[in-house]
Amino acid sequence: MTTSINAKFDLDYGEFRLNVDLRLPGSGITVLFGPSGSGKTTLLRCVAGLQKASAGFLCINGDVWQDSEQGLFLPTHKRELGYVFQEANLFPHLTVAGNLRFGLKRMVKTAPQADLPHILALLGIEHLLDRMPAHLSGGERQRVAIARALALNPKILLMDEPLASLDFKRKQDILPFLSRLHGELQIPVLYVTHSRQEVAQLADHLVIMDEGKVLASGALSDTLSRLDVSMAQDREASTVWQVQVVEHEADYQLTRVACTGGELSLPRLAANPGTTLRLQVYARDVSITLQQPTATSILNVLPAVITGIADDDSGHCVVRLRLSGYAEAPSGLSSVDQVADSPLLAYITRKSKLLLDLRIGMPVYVQIKASSILN
Ligand SMILES: Nc1ncnc2c1ncn2[C@@H]1O[C@H](COP(=O)(O)OP(=O)(O)OP(=O)(O)O)[C@@H](O)[C@H]1O
């Protein structure tokens, strides 16, 4: 993966200080995750030039927008970026088409044009062009706001909790459109959220922040399975893998999928063999055995090696494992960096850990009781 964003900011508000030095991928979705007040929005505003860090350096795929040592600070209107906020902020007196055109009028004439039909199709809003914003659902308004930002053909898309003002149903409606941005957008996206669901569904790269600092930054599944960060330390912990559909077993209404480390049987999926999908496995749905179980109703039993163990203070512990079935990712998945190793977490009682005498480096079997496909 090429490191193409370098964002280094030191900004002191007195009560709060943002101090980050990040190297991020130049494409794909980077999610900034952290509790309220951890500095996610402040970081996004520094990237946009809406906030000026006293010491800062920002380079987006070769374009330097800030270099305080050289006295360089590009104002926001000169930064080629799209910004999507919690509220869509569409002009109420303009149709959807009018809202999209408004941004375009302000573009520099020589700037390359965005592929508008592609953007409209990507966000599924072709049929809404003549509508007024008041006649759109919350999810449709946000899709138009994202299209308006992309229509500017930005070099980076900044999204600050774009789903926060939507109810559960609307969030579910819009997430598939956001998932499409992975493969279809060439530019990097910085996406702020507190939602673990959005992290699992959207992130390629994950940055975990707290108190103005970066606690962890890395490929999604590596970061999700880091036992030193809080996301991996409770029963909501999960890992996300890319899997590939192998075949359907019509008689059993099952679909077999391949991951690095083996194959899994899932309830029948509406996807053709060869399709790549995201699979989320919660730590609480994974159990550990020392021998390969011979009589179990659980279909998904895979060999694994323990790579880490962290106790919590509620009588449980989280065990990090690496599947050890295959050395290589299935063909077709190898380009996805998070597939190189499919880490897995198991949330078990501390008593079970002691009874099985689990230790790092031990070969075991994992039983995966349930999992869910995210896209
Ligand atoms: N202009 C400002 N002056 C002083 N303090 C500020 C300013 N803007 C933000 N802060 C403080 O900086 C801290 C980080 O705020 P920020 O909005 O970046 O957090 P966040 O992680 O995005 O939070 P949330 O998830 O609630 O939106 C907060 O304590 C906030 O009160």
TrEMBL record:
Q: Which InterPro entries match?
A: AAA+_ATPase, ABC_transporter-like_ATP-bd, ABC_transporter-like_CS, Mo/tungstate-bd_C_term_dom, ModC_ABC_ATP-bd, Molybdenum_import_ModC, Mop_domain, P-loop_NTPase
Name the encoding gene, please: modC
Report whether ATP-binding shows up as a keyword of the record.
yes
GO molecular function ontology, one term from the record: ATP binding
UniProt source species? Methylomonas rapida
Q: Which residues form the ABC transporter domain?
A: 2-236
Query: This chain belongs to which protein, by name?
Result: Molybdenum ABC transporter ATP-binding protein
What PANTHER family does this protein map onto? ABC TRANSPORTER I FAMILY MEMBER 10, MOLYBDENUM IMPORT ATP-BINDING PROTEIN MODC 2
SMART domains under this entry?
AAA
Query: Which residues belong to the signal peptide in this entry?
Result: none
Mind listing the UniProt keywords for this protein, alphabetically?
ATP-binding, Molybdenum, Nucleotide-binding, Transport
Starting at the broadest rank, the lineage of the source organism is:
Bacteria, Pseudomonadati, Pseudomonadota, Gammaproteobacteria, Methylococcales
User: Is this entry keyworded Nucleotide-binding?
Assistant: yes
**Mop domain location:** 295-375
Show the Pfam families listed in the entry: ABC_tran (PF00005)
